[in-house]
Amino acid sequence: MNQTIVSHSPKASFSCLDHIKSCFGCICPCFYPNVFGSQAYKALDLGPQKEDRKTLVLDLDETLVHSSVFPTNFHDFQIEVSSGGQSFTFYVHKRPDLDAFLKLVSDIYEVVIFTASLESYANPVIDLIAPWIPLTHRFFRKHCISYNGFFVKDVSRLNRPISSILICDNAPISYVLNRKNGIEVKSFMGEKDDKELLSVLYPLLKKLVEVPDVTQVYLKQKSQ
Ligand SMILES: [Mg+2]
């Protein structure tokens, strides 16, 4: 019997960042064809499972952080990224309660970050927000597949049981191939009063730890 647990999020929304960030972030490249290349079913190797925990796959941009090429007075840190002979500065806002959230979920889940952004941008960000996440647990645009013009994260490629994988992402299209594993997270655009991580997402994840098969749980959306 399906279980109903959750509570979550608003209507699907897709970020429209500025032109430069579109080179690095998870913006739809509309020219991509609807194809499943050989990459589609190639395993994403997390290495051997060290503990009997579920695997929590977290998106980066607009889920854990918000980055902009425009300086602000309240960003948490900035990084320099080189691409195509040019250097770009990104001003990064950590989502409120990010440090506490990552600590709490890492106590009960095997944590993975899977972003559609380029590695050259995302890896330095992960190094600053969660340096303890090993390289084997970081996946980038090159690990996505293109599907109807979007970068899609097929978590069934991870070498873990699909019944024990959850993916949290502000863009539901990211987990369109694994809808039963997906949790939509409200997009974070730098709001100081955002409460999503500790007030909404963590309580839900804490409940899902106890579920034998996450694909049997109906992740009810508020918008439905
Ligand atoms: Mg995102």
Question: What does this protein structure show overall?
Answer:
The protein is of the alpha/beta class. It has one domain: Rossmann fold (3-Layer(aba) Sandwich). 16% of the residues lie in helices and 23% in strands. The protein contains 3 helices and 12 strands, in the order E-E-E-E-E-H-E-H-E-E-E-E-E-H-E. It has helices spanning 98-108, 119-129, 196-208; strands spanning 3-4, 54-58, 65-68, 77-83, 86-94, 109-114, 138-139, 145-147, 150-152, 165-169, 182-184, 217-218. The protein has a 5-stranded parallel β-sheet. It has a 3-stranded antiparallel β-sheet with strand order 3-5-4, covered by helices on one side. A two-stranded parallel sheet has the order 1-12. The longest helix has 13 residues, at 196-208. The chain starts with a strand and ends in a 6-residue tail after the last strand. Mean pLDDT is 84; it is low at 7-38 and 220-224. The site of magnesium ion has 8 residues, from loops.
